[in-house]
DNA sequence: TGCGTCACGTAATGTTATTACATGAATTGT
DNA sequence: ACAATTCATGTAATAACATTACGTGACGCA
């Protein structure tokens, strides 16, 4: 379990994401941090860039938005690809890992000589609660 | 094998994507079609929307861009999720299917009562040719 | 002290996507 | 034949997301 020293801006952005129910766009984060002195998108994007690097935050490509990592305590993020199920009705995001999928993707990339750097798996749909 | 009647604009957009080596952004498509009378982004987005619906085109979420479906002749697109390997050096995109991954995702969603509508799988990295 | 690095601030701009409103062509039911 | 509906289209404006360029001050270190 490595702990990183976050800067002031990184801490602020991570706090906002952690407190949030669902994913937030960079501009939404910006708005929430205006009272703390944030004035430009770049301040958010710079913090996000680092937080992504540290694995404390994930980017949801299909939503152009960001979530705090749900599995920090398990250090899950480091041993495989993270997948997301995103409810299009309530916005809730479930984060999970699947080693079979990891293996399968690895075997495809190995077979092709493809060297993966980042893998995105996102399922859009309706969560159990919304799918009544 | 169902064949769809495409409108003029849809045909133009699909042709541009089919002729292209790699994925194109909506605005790049727009530029390539100015000579054919395209003047606004909406003309492209509307055509893309339909082409996506017909399964003739895929959207790459991590790139905000679009590719013609590579497996039309196999009607692959209809029986499972499509995955993409995207080379960050040369831009080449490989499209593939994997039933084990499909099964694994289906079993996760079934277990959670999540009803999937669209699933995105994108691997960013370096293709064999670029990874020397 | 001089140098490199890094977090930060600000402004401007670039890129991607949508909303709102209007028109004409094709289809359908009567 | 006619009204009603649907659908593809065109145009303008704007919203939403992201980056480039430039400058400053703090810090570690040879």
Automatic annotation (TrEMBL), chains A, B:
<keyword id="KW-0678">Repressor</keyword>
<keyword id="KW-0862">Zinc</keyword>
<keyword id="KW-0408">Iron</keyword>
<dbReference type="InterPro" id="IPR036388">
    <property type="entry name" value="WH-like_DNA-bd_sf"/>
</dbReference>
<dbReference type="Pfam" id="PF01475">
    <property type="entry name" value="FUR"/>
</dbReference>
<comment type="subunit">
    <text>Homodimer.</text>
</comment>
<protein>
    <recommendedName>
        <fullName>Ferric uptake regulation protein</fullName>
    </recommendedName>
</protein>
<dbReference type="InterPro" id="IPR002481">
    <property type="entry name" value="FUR"/>
</dbReference>
<comment type="similarity">
    <text>Belongs to the Fur family.</text>
</comment>
<keyword id="KW-0804">Transcription</keyword>
<dbReference type="InterPro" id="IPR043135">
    <property type="entry name" value="Fur_C"/>
</dbReference>
<keyword id="KW-0238">DNA-binding</keyword>
<dbReference type="InterPro" id="IPR036390">
    <property type="entry name" value="WH_DNA-bd_sf"/>
</dbReference>
<keyword id="KW-0963">Cytoplasm</keyword>
<keyword id="KW-0805">Transcription regulation</keyword>
<keyword id="KW-0479">Metal-binding</keyword>
């Amino acid at each position: 379990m490595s702990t990183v020293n976050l800067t002031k801006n990184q801490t602020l952005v991570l706090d906002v994401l952690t407190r949030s129910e669902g994913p937030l766009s960079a501009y939404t984060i910006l708005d929430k941090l205006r009272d703390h002195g944030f004035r430009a998108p770049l301040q958010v994007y710079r913090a996000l860039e680092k937080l992504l690097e540290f694995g404390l935050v994930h980017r949801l490509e299909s939503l152009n938005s960001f979530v705090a990592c749900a599995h920090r305590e398990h250090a899950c993020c480091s041993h495989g690809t993270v997948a997301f199920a995103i409810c299009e009705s309530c916005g809730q995001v479930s984060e999970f890992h699947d080693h079979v999928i990891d293996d399968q993707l690895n075997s495809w990339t190995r077979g092709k000589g493809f060297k993966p750097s980042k893998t995105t798996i996102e399922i859009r749909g309706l969560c159990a609660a919304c799918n009544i």
